[in-house]
Amino acid sequence: MFAIVKVNSRAEIADMRRIYARTLAGGQEGYLEELIDDAGPFHILCEGALCGYCCIGPDKRMCALYVRQLFIARADELLRYLVTQGYVTGAMVSTRDRLAMSLCLDMQGRRWCQGYLFEDGAASRNPPVPLPDAIVRPAVAADLAAIESLCRHFLPEYRSWIDQGCMHVMMRNNELLGIGLLQIIDTHPPYADVGMFVAPALRRNGIGTYLVEMEKEQCRRRGLIPIAGCDYENIASRRALEKAGMVARDRMVGFEFKQAGS
């Protein structure tokens, strides 16, 4: 008999999350971490004993599942319980998570590729800035208005990235051309998610690739391992990341489970 108990904060699953991180075939991607941040954390009990945790969003989409080794033989039974009891109607899973991916593939329903997941495949080359009159520097608070105007809803918010020193800006004559990002995944050290956004009129000029290579170099200096992700339909971002030496070895896969009686 299983039971699902909502916990008050992610601190209550922190120890299990650290163990879970060691089971992955690579780092946790920033997009999935954002889903987890917005989701509710739950303890999973089996016959009264703590057997793992899951994170379920307000749309009943599961974005994290960990089962302790002692209970791994009942993992498929656990997922069926979550679905049949109405706790979960779908999932977002990385192919780096072999257990969750295998369990979700066994469920009937619809599935699709949500995004590409990259790991570093080449050393940074320290290329020259693609526009000779442009400069790249850390973002500061005074840049916030220009960043929000250019990037709009690319990220939920920008101020914390600036405050944490995780954003660079490319400028030319006080005009913002693009931003580079480095998101340290605190729950999955030593990985950092790198990314970029380039002004639409200036794309296909090597700016995105340069910004990614620059953030990769920042990772090297700080002892971090760069990873990245992009939407499955965003061919331009995929090409920019690949030109910067990133390799799309994994995928983010969405699932919609078939409900009983449907």
| Spatial separation of the terminal alpha carbons | 25 Å
Any low-confidence stretches, pLDDT <50, length ≥5?
none
CATH homologous superfamily name of the largest domain? Gcn5-related N-acetyltransferase (GNAT)
Strand content: 25-35%
Oligomer: single chain
Task: Give me the number of helical elements.
Answer: 8
Count of beta strands: 12
Secondary-structure element sequence? EHHEEEHEHEEHHEEEHEHE
Structural overview:
The protein contains 8 helices and 12 strands. The chain has helices at 14-23, 30-38, 75-84, 98-106, 144-151, 159-163, 207-222, 235-243; strands at residues 2-6, 40-46, 49-56, 61-67, 90-94, 109-120, 135-138, 167-172, 175-184, 191-198, 225-231, 246-257. The chain has 2 domains: 2-115 and 252-257, 3-Layer(aba) Sandwich (Aminopeptidase), CATH 3.40.630; 122-244, Aminopeptidase. The model has no long low-confidence stretch (mean pLDDT 94). It is elongated and about 65 Å long. Strands 1-2-3-4-5-12-6-11-10-9-8-7 form a 12-stranded mixed β-sheet, with helices on both faces. With 262 residues, the protein is of the alpha+beta class.
Q: Which terms would index this structure?
A:
single chain; 262 residues; alpha+beta; Aminopeptidase; 2 domains; twelve-stranded mixed sheet; 8 helices; 12 strands; elongated
